[in-house]
Amino acid sequence: MYIKRKLEGKILKYLDSPEIIAVVGPRQCGKSTMLGNILDKLENVSRVNFEDRSALNMFNKNIDDFIELYVKDKKYLFIDEFQYAKNGGKKLKYIFDEHKIKIFISGSSAIDMTVNALKFLVGRIFIFQLQPFDFEEFLDYRDKSLVGILGKENLVFKQLGISKVGEDVNEKLKHYYQEYALFGGYPRVVLAKDEEEKKEVLKNIYNTYFLREVRDILGLIDDYKLEKLIKALALQIGDLIEYAELGKISEFSYPTLKKYLNFLEKTFICSLVRPYYKNKRTEIVKNPKTYFFDCGLRNIIINDFRKLEDRIDAGHLLENAMFMQLVKGGYEFNFWRDKKKNEIDFVLQLENQKMLALEVKTTFKNANSNSVLSFKKAYSQIDIAFACLKTNGDTKNAKVYPAWMV
Predict the structure, then answer these.
(1) Which of 127, 141, 243, 303 is at a distance of 20 to 30 A from 251, taking alpha carbons?
(2) In Å, how far are 90, 337, 379 from 279, measured between CA atoms?
(3) With 50 as the cut, is the pLDDT of residue 124 above it?
(4) How far lies 375's CA from each of 278, 364, 380, in Å?
(5) In the β-sheet with 332-337, what is the strand arrangement from edge to edge?
(6) Among residues 299, 273, 306, 271, which one has the least CA distance to residue 287?
(7) By the 8 A CB rule, do 117 and 92 touch?
(8) pLDDT digits 0-9 by tens, 162-191
(9) Rounded to whole angstroms, what are the CA distances from 36 to 31, 77, 84, 390?
């Protein structure tokens, strides 16, 4: 079953433009499926996968033979798993400059890995990032009747509150959102028939990551150290990174630790969120926080799929689910923390230079915590909103929204 991706519409706008279309994202997030669905509707398409060693060797060692076989007399060229190509950018530029063919490439690493020597492709390439399903795409498979309720009626654009959604519908959305927070949005996981199958799929995704990205691309022999680092990060989502502690756990030196943290970002495992600040003298600016690009992958790493109400990390897991939504929505955001350890989970950059502070709570109790009051004092011009699973307090004087509406 194919579930249409939101990114598909953006790519279709550039179907007739000359630029190369590059789609990057984690393994098994649906890149090949989405591009295949687009190309299935076109004629005279050449497709090649660089996991096919013969095609890859031909591209690397004899580009003219590659062109004769895959490019000549074709209108479209799709190269999957492009990150395996050596000097890929330079050779792709040669094809682009010498042949009138629309090129699509996909890869499971961020673009500075996927398109080697990106400098060769400046002005010739459009880069798109595909993540696992966002919550709306998730619902498109789980319950289509609920998709229209979300639409564009979200926190940032419409300021839709709980009162605008009926109680029965709200409960359904809450149920699905908690499933999304536990098992994430990888398409194959969402399509799995039961929880055991979801766990097996997630385990396979994680193992494949180590077999392909870590060993093939990074060439890392002592990958057990990286595995220890990833597990340590999974256990402290939403917390400030402590480099000394992570170095001790992973046995990596500080420079090596920084290198692999960057690698984890570029291969879509986890991301570092930087602090928001205006005055470096009064706010902490040194250490970032970390979140995983997919909650399901994070939960398989720590082997914990208990329901949110049974977990001590429910608040942080809900934050991670919100991080997933913000990333997939294309927002720029930071967190805020002052020297007294008052924190606001996310500070979003919206349209027209507007900003929004967002606090994520499993249960909303009040709008006047020390963190909120401290942030208001420092940034009175920025509105504060709350995203939660349920409320247990007065919401009259606060902007409180269900987490799934963000």
Answers:
(1) 303
(2) 43, 12, 11
(3) yes
(4) 12, 18, 8
(5) 332-337, 343-349, 355-364, 383-391, 399-402
(6) 273
(7) no
(8) 445 677 888 899 999 999 999 999 999 999
(9) 8, 11, 20, 41
Q: Given the DSSP bridges, would you call strands 355-364 and 102-107 parallel, antiparallel or unpaired?
A: unpaired
84: DSSP letter: G
Residue whose token pair is 């990114």: 7
pTM of the full structure: 0.90
The distance from CA 46 to its chain's CA centroid, rounded to whole angstroms, is 29
Spatial contact of 2 and 140, defined as CB atoms under 8 Å apart: no
Kindly report, residue by residue over 280-302, the tens digit of the pLDDT. 665 566 789 999 999 999 999 99
Question: Which pLDDT band, with edges at 50, 70 and 90, does 157 fall under?
Answer: very low
List Cβ<8 Å contacts ≥24 apart for 304-313.
Answer: 305/182, 305/183, 305/195, 305/199, 307/178, 307/182, 308/178, 308/181, 308/182, 308/362, 308/389, 313/237
Three-state secondary-structure class, residue 342 = coil
Tens digits of residue pLDDT in 36-88: 999 999 999 999 999 999 999 999 999 999 999 999 999 999 999 988 887 88
Starting at the edge strand found earlier in the chain, the sheet holding 20-24 runs: 45-49, 76-80, 102-107, 20-24, 125-129
Handedness of CA 268, 274, 276, 278 (dihedral sign): negative
Q: Which two tokens stand for residue 267?
A: 């291969």
State both tokens at 51.
């996991």
Dihedral of the alpha carbons of 151, 155, 159, 163, in degrees to the nearest 10: 80
SS (H, E, C) 357-371: EEEEEEEECCCCCHH
Strand ranges, E, within 113-187: 125-129
Per-residue pLDDT tens digits for 15-27: 999 999 999 999 9
E strands, 250-298, are 270-273, 289-292
Query: Per the structure block, which two tokens stand in for 272?
Result: 């570092």
Asked whether the beta carbons of 160 and 404 are under 8 A apart, the reply is: no
Terminal Cα-to-Cα distance of the chain (whole angstroms): 27
**Candidate from 111-115, 263-267, 341-345 with smallest mean pLDDT:** 111-115
CA–CA distance, 315 with 321 (Å, rounded to integer): 10
Residue 128 three-state SS: strand
- Quote the tokens at residue 337: 């923390």
